[in-house]
Specification:
This protein is of the alpha+beta class. Helices cover 56% and strands 13% of the residues. The chain is built from three helices and two strands, in the order H-H-H-E-E.
């Protein structure tokens, strides 16, 4: 019999991805917290997701300009 708040790593990955698009309900938040405290792999997956999200955010704000000599002069946009 499966306990109501216990989630598999696959279920937690789905919850972590869903959390990017919507707010989690209290049961999902509690189940996620419990699983993350017991699992070694899922916190690493969460960190990888956050790294990708931050990298994409920086990439989205990145532009390339050319100086008078025609060489690339990278400049980041201010948010």
């Amino acid at each position: 019999m499966k306990l109501p708040l216990m989630r598999t790593c696959r279920e937690v990955a789905t919850i972590l991805i869903a959390r990017e698009d919507r707010a989690l309900g209290p049961i999902d938040r509690l189940a996620l917290r419990m699983h993350m405290a017991l699992c070694d792999a899922c916190p690493r997956f969460e960190k990888q997701m956050l790294t990708m999200r931050n990298g994409l955010r920086q990439w989205r704000n990145y532009t390339v300009t050319y100086d008078s000599a025609g060489t690339v002069a990278p400049v980041e946009k201010k948010i």
